[in-house]
Amino acid sequence: MRDPDWIDLAPTLNGEAFERFQRELCRRNGVRLEPLTPSGDWREDVQERAALAEAEIAYVESARAAIAPFVADIPSDADAFLAWYERLAEKGPGQNDPLFPWLERFASFEDMKWFLEQEVSGEAGFDDLVALTQIKMPQTPKLEMARNYWDEMGRGNAQGMHGPMLTRLAAFFGIDARPERVCPESLALGNMMVALASNRRYAFHSIGALGAIEMTAPGRAIHVERGLRRLKVPGTQRQYFSLHAILDVKHSEAWNREVLRPLVEEDPRRAQAIGEGAVLRLWHGARCFERYRRHFRLQMESPREAA
To answer: For residue 161, what is the DSSP state?
Structure first.
């Protein structure tokens, strides 16, 4: 049934109300996407899902309002838009954050474990997000998203699947990523990605957010992989970050060329939604990095967050 108290917390972006909302949304998302068989009262199930959709869309709209200054001048011409989008890799929220060189050079085993707990919890599953997002997309973008998905799935080899690579690393560190152990900013990141991919009104936002992951992850992955290597984590456990430091560069180039450009050329109005999605993803990431630095008591100034 609808829980007005919980749903009414959706627009909050900070404080205890934000934490309560994100933990509850994460809990419900954990159940929502599980494959099930028919059981219980289907009407009650429909009502619960409607309440979930109401809550998460209210949160998305609150976050969209927060990032409005970053996305006020997104160009609609395909060439100009791609130039704007690609600048996010250097100028977008959270880019070049000093947290990651610190992880590479100074983080202890326990520091790295805590960081990975947050990252594992915020990981919504790129393969599933792509699968949800590609529904009914035009042919050229759909084909590129299919190639990306196939890479995520290890090209049919279970040992090469990206999700289980992260699971193996988590097992090596003995990570417990239950929502109650994870900071709300990390939960919000995962919740936002699920919201964009699950609601067709945000399908192009999801494309922008997924492309931003591919475009910005390699630089961070390199630092984390080097930090893991310094801590003498075996190569098989480092594989997730080793792979993403290299493969996502190629993924990003193909995504921008085969997904973003055709979509904007076909309908320039999509540029605004795609750009907003990218900034939403980076903005949530920046909030995570700031929270992580506070946890580690790092006296660092983050780079200016400008899109």
So the answer is: B
pLDDT interval class at 220 (50, 70, 90)? very high
- Cβ(118)–Cβ(186) under 8 Å? yes
Distance CA 217, CA 95 (A): 10
pLDDT at 303 over 60: no
Q: What is the pLDDT of residue 1?
A: 46
Residue 161, strand partner residues: 153
Q: How far is CA 95 from the centre of its chain?
A: 14
Of 27-36, 101-110, 140-149, the poorest mean pLDDT is in 27-36
Q: What was the pLDDT predicted at 162?
A: 85
User: Residue 199 corresponds to which amino acid?
Assistant: N
CA–CA separation, 140 vs 153, rounded Å? 20
DSSP bridge pairs for 153: 161
Average pLDDT over residues 129-157: 95
For 75-296, which CATH superfamily applies? Heme oxygenase-like (1.20.910.10)
Are the C-beta atoms of residues 94 and 305 closer than 8 Å to each other? yes
- Supply the DSSP symbol for 257: I
Which of these, 226, 216, 168, 227, lies nearest to 160 by C-alpha position?
Answer: 168
- Per-domain boundaries in the chain: 75-296
By percentage, how much of the chain surpasses pLDDT 70?
A: 95
Residue 306: pLDDT over 60: no
> Which of 75-81's residues contact partners 24+ apart within 8 Å by CB, and which partners?
75/271, 76/264, 76/268, 76/269, 76/271, 76/272, 77/268, 78/261, 78/264, 78/265, 78/268, 78/271, 81/260, 81/264, 81/268, 81/271, 81/274, 81/275
DSSP structure class, residue 260: I
Q: Are 179 and 26 in contact (CB under 8 A)?
A: yes
